[in-house]
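[Automated response] Your request has been received and processed.

Submitted sequence:
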Amino acid sequence: MSIYNPAFSSDKYDEKIAATLPYYEDFYKQISDILHCCFNEKISWLDLGCGTGKMAETAFREFSIERFVFCDISEDMINIAKSRFKNTHSEFIISPTQNIKFSEEFDVVTSIMVNHFLSDSERRLTVSNCFKSLKKNGLFISFENFAPFTQAGEKLFLERWKRFQIRNGKNPQDAENHINRYKKDYFPYTLSQIIELFKSAGFKQTEIIWLSNMQVGVIGIK
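Generated structure:
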């Protein structure tokens, strides 16, 4: 499920999300840095919850792309992505992430701020499908919100997150409303649950690659 709001243009969306998620641009920098370490040849890439194509901007700018598949549940977002990336290496799919059907076709699968919106069964299907979609030694990289281990941590981290949003231009009520979505509109796992999920899907190696506030980047190697 995509978090992109169809009411926003891509530029407007990026402004809104940057005021909501600390270090949002770093998500893409981290992915780029890792992939530069791992690939010297053309890459086949599947991006789940692609929205308007933020991940594709980095992919096409920094890598040699053999195939890039945009996948999102929102037809509006896919249509915007189509208008932005008109080249023969791009494919577009309107689908929930848990319904994708590929078999050993991709070097890389990315999922940015998607998984925490899914139910437990949907998440397990999604991560399993990502595993099946990858070639041997392929990489699945997910950035998502995570749940603190304790109630004290939860209270502290949410307050810190609210203060970040206010400092970056949100009015206090909007920031409070966003924080109140926690475990109501999205359902994050703890770090240990995320690692367990990757392992249960079959990934032979799983690592946390980035962590800050209540967001985490995780990589699974097939």
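Summary generated for your ticket: Helices lie at 10-18, 24-38, 54-62, 75-84, 120-133, 151-167, 172-179, 191-201. Residues 208 and 218 are 4 Å apart (CA to CA).
If you did not submit this request, please reply to this message.
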